[in-house]
């Protein structure tokens, strides 16, 4: 009888694990997807998908690119959707050859406590340090931020 009870418990545990892990969703970041403009293949993504809850203090964004084009210069922009149009709210600049450092956009600087907004991140890439020769724009899907 003890053996039967142990086997039954093991089967129950195994079925519970299967159901639990099959219902778990993988969390993907809001991202632009890999796109190629003027010979540069790149992608920009955030550190969270969907809503940023009130417990979050910043929106993190990172850019990646393939080795083509060597070092490039970027401007990472946080855009907000207001009254049917996108408006730039903040930006960070730098250069990279494969991956940018994470750009942090602090939520308190863009939303009053209790407010929510729709945002996206746009990574503009330039081939020169003067930011004159534009290569292309990589834009994430939009996402909601709560403060």
What's the quick description here?
This protein has one helix and nine strands; from the N terminus they run H-E-E-E-E-E-E-E-E-E. With 147 residues, it is mainly beta.
Architecture overview:
By secondary structure, this protein is mainly beta. The chain has a single domain, classed as Sandwich (Immunoglobulin-like). 15% of the residues lie in helices and 45% in strands. It has one helix and nine strands; from the N terminus they run H-E-E-E-E-E-E-E-E-E. It has one helix at residues 2-23, and strands at 35-37, 40-46, 58-65, 72-82, 85-96, 103-106, 116-126, 134-139, 143-146. A hairpin with a 2-residue loop joins strand 1 and strand 2 (40-46). The longest helix has 22 residues, at 2-23.
């Amino acid at each position: 009888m003890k053996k039967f009870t142990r086997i039954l418990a093991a089967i129950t545990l195994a079925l519970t694990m299967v159901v639990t892990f099959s219902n778990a969703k993988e969390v993907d970041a809001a991202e632009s997807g890999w796109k190629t403009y003027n010979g540069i293949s790149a992608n920009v993504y955030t550190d969270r998908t969907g809503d940023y809850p009130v417990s979050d203090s910043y929106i993190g964004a990172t850019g990646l690119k393939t080795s083509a084009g060597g070092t490039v210069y970027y401007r990472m922009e946080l855009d907000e959707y207001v009254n049917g149009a996108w408006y730039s709210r903040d930006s960070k600049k730098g250069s990279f050859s494969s991956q940018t450092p994470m750009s942090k956009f602090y939520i308190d600087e863009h939303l009053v406590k209790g407010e929510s907004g729709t945002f996206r991140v746009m990574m503009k890439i330039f081939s020169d340090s003067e930011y004159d020769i534009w290569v292309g724009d990589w834009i994430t899907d939009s996402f909601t931020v709560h403060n």
